[in-house]
Specification:
Strand order of the largest sheet: 5-4-9-14-11-12
Number of strands: 16
Distance between the termini: 156 Å
Number of helices: 2
Structural class: alpha+beta
Oligomer: single chain
Largest sheet: 6 strands, antiparallel
């Protein structure tokens, strides 16, 4: 009797213990779930709050910066009703000092005619030269036409007051040539002389250039000519020869169809003066638009 009672009591106690253990496990699981959720919420909520705060801060900073930019752009300083315009930057104006480009004029003359002259002064009548070796002549092969052919190996020589057998300090002075351009008119603004070193140094030192709009016989008269240039050629006694001298520029705005070139002096006292080419130039703009 006592033995059976003991067994039943033990069985009841075991069942009760198992029941309590199962309930405790469920409670532990529920508690664990709530604790996990609490921890998760505790992590996520601060992150969201910090993110929102950062976003608000960035937006606030952006709006502040944008407001300052707009304010700076539109701002005109106003003090007691006086409006002061904001300073502006202006680039300095640079004045061009570039020398105008020159264009070489082809010296094609009417009927190929070029008249050699001597004993002629600026504004004076022209005295024609002839082929020969005496006073006022030029060697037949060293004729005035050679000056306008663009070939430095050909030359023009004129004895002027002298001859092959007679020489003084003014030989070659007062000599030169004149011609009428085949093209109607040109505005000449520069000249240059070319020489050849194979011959003795007889290059011009000082020269003149005159212009005219008359033709043929009228060109022998001094009154037909207008002075354009009177000065140096740029050749000196030690100048490198067998080349063209420096460009001699002058002011001129009048187109002329005829030109007279005179030698006033030479570098060395010899029996004559001699040079290979006479080059005339006009400004590039005038050449492009046409002088006539």
């Amino acid at each position: 009797m006592n033995t059976n009672s003991t067994v039943q009591t033990t069985t009841v106690q075991y069942k009760i213990s198992c029941f309590h253990n199962r309930k405790k496990k469920i409670q532990c699981m529920i508690l664990s779930i709530f604790l996990g959720m609490f921890i998760l919420i505790g992590i996520i909520v601060p992150v969201i709050i910090v993110g929102k705060f950062s976003e608000i801060t960035v937006q606030s900073t952006f709006m502040t910066t944008r407001t300052m930019e707009l304010s700076t752009t539109k701002q005109t300083s106003t003090t007691r009703g006086i409006i002061t315009p904001q300073p502006t930057t202006t680039k300095p104006t640079i004045l061009s000092t570039t020398t105008p480009k020159r264009v070489l004029i082809p010296l094609y003359t009417v009927n190929g005619s070029i008249m050699g002259i001597y004993n002629t002064t600026i504004g004076g009548n022209s005295l024609p030269s002839t082929p020969g070796f005496e006073t006022g002549q030029y060697p037949p092969k060293l004729k005035p036409h050679n000056v306008c052919d663009g070939d430095i190996s050909t030359k023009y020589q004129n004895f002027g007051h002298c001859s092959v057998t007679f020489m003084n300090g003014t030989c070659g002075s007062g000599t030169g040539l004149y011609f009428e351009l085949e093209r109607s008119t040109m505005i000449v603004t520069a000249l240059r002389i070319c020489v050849d070193k194979k011959r003795p140094p007889r290059e011009p030192k000082t020269v003149s250039l005159e212009g005219s709009n008359l033709s043929r016989g009228a060109l022998t008269f001094g009154t037909s000519w207008t002075l354009l240039y009177n000065g140096a050629t740029g050749f000196t006694s030690d100048y490198l020869r067998d080349e063209c001298g420096p460009l001699q520029s002058f002011s001129n705005s009048v187109p002329y169809k005829s030109y007279r070139f005179l030698v006033s002096s030479t570098n060395i006292n010899t029996d004559s003066t001699e040079y290979s080419d006479l080059e005339l130039y006009e400004d590039e703009l005038l050449h492009t638009n046409g002088s006539s």
